[in-house]
Design goal:
Its main location: cytoplasm. The chain has helices spanning 3-14, 42-54, 65-74, 104-112, 131-146, 158-163, 180-189, 202-210, 246-265, 279-305, 311-316, 318-325; strands at 30-34, 58-62, 79-81, 120-123, 151-153, 174-176, 215-218, 223-226, 231-234. A 9-stranded mixed β-sheet has the order 3-2-1-4-5-6-7-8-9, sandwiched between helices. α2 (42-54) links the parallel β1 (30-34) and β2. By secondary structure, it is an alpha/beta fold. α2 crosses α9 (246-265), α4 packs across α5 (131-146) and α9 (246-265) runs antiparallel to α10. The chain has 12 helices and 9 strands.
Length: 334
């Protein structure tokens, strides 16, 4: 671990809430993952479970009814809400009258009503490219933005940004987590001249500036994290197996750190050792913390599983990764 990484992790640790007797259920993070369709049930589960394993108090999945029936069998610890809808494969159910379940405003309204009970949204895992799903999520993101709720945008939800960048443009509480292909698509859509960037971090900085200061995690051999002004490099060793679903652990981990960010800003505990962390600074720190935890999960899982590593193996390592990188916070010292 480099000295720079160690110093950044020291700041990340200050965001970790101590386990205090006076805290009650829900104060240390209420996260919802929006995604999951008939064909994709694993991704939202891995994201929500990573969030729960890392330490958020309440972890929700908002998905289609077909996905909900499956995801509920994966774990009784998640709260699963079958509120999303896919485009109907038939004509409207009543002649001359539109089916409200095919109206994105109608579907989104039920989800938006949940936002007051949540701290952080993750959108994208298992979402797919269904037009109704995409339109619904776009409306929910805008509503979350109106209430200043942090939003982590991943996977197929990045298609929404690709088609309409203004959904997140200028929103400093949005975190985007594109892989190599998704990053290139975003740069192409926004006409970011990646060829003009000569530094390691130049591309992610240029894209973040073009989107008005959102935080971007450019996933790769190193995770490059930037809002266009401040850039962090997450260079911890990871595993060498690239199985599908590992990015879902990242989104869930980042979401939990964002939930802890809110607890820190709400003053649920007092950090007496150093000057207070700033709200915008903690967006990058949450992204770095989620990246570091995911990379360590991957490293630990690969040591045990090697080529057979799967996304579920990362889920099993979340707490070990947390303890190895950050350890428990000594409440007495705070």
């Amino acid at each position: 671990m480099s000295a720079t990484t160690r110093n950044v992790l020291g700041k990340v640790k200050r965001m970790v809430p101590p386990m205090l007797d006076r805290l009650h259920k829900g104060q240390l993070g209420r996260v919802a993952v929006i995604g999951g369709s008939e064909d994709y049930t694993g991704a939202p589960y891995f994201s929500a479970m990573a969030s729960a394993r890392l330490g958020c108090d309440m972890s929700h999945v908002v998905c289609t009814p077909a996905a909900a029936a499956v995801i509920k069998t994966y774990s009784p610890n998640l709260m699963v809400h079958p509120l999303m809808r896919q485009s109907p494969s038939r004509e409207p159910s009543r002649e001359g009258e539109d089916d409200p379940e095919a109206n994105p405003d109608h579907v989104a309204r039920k989800i938006i009503e949940m936002l007051g009970r949540l701290h952080v949204l993750v959108v994208g895992p298992g979402l797919g490219r269904d037009p109704l799903m995409q339109a619904t999520v776009a409306r929910v993101i805008r509503a979350a933005r109106d209430s200043n709720m942090p939003v982590v945008v991943d996977a197929d939800a990045l298609q929404i940004v690709h088609n309409d960048p203004d959904v997140v443009r200028g929103y400093r509480y949005a975190v985007l987590t594109p892989n190599v292909v998704e990053f290139k698509r975003l740069c192409d859509a926004l006409k970011v001249d990646v060829g003009a960037q000569t530094s390691e971090t130049g591309k992610v900085e240029a894209l973040a500036r073009e989107l008005g200061g959102v935080t971007i995690i450019q996933k790769g051999y190193k995770d490059l994290i930037s809002n266009g002004e401040v850039t962090l490099v997450s260079d911890l060793e990871g595993g060498k197996k690239r199985s599908g679903g590992q990015g879902d652990t990242l989104t869930g981990a980042v979401a939990t750190f964002l939930g802890w960010r809110k607890a820190y800003l709400d003053g649920l505990w007092k950090d007496c050792e150093m000057p207070a962390l700033e709200a915008d600074e903690m967006m990058g720190l949450a992204a770095f913390g989620g990246s570091a935890i995911t990379r360590e999960c991957s490293r630990l899982a690969f040591l045990k599983k090697g080529r057979s590593l799967q996304a579920s193996d990362l889920t099993d390592e979340v707490h070990s990764a947390f303890m190895g990188l950050l350890g428990e916070v000594d409440a007495a010292k705070l």
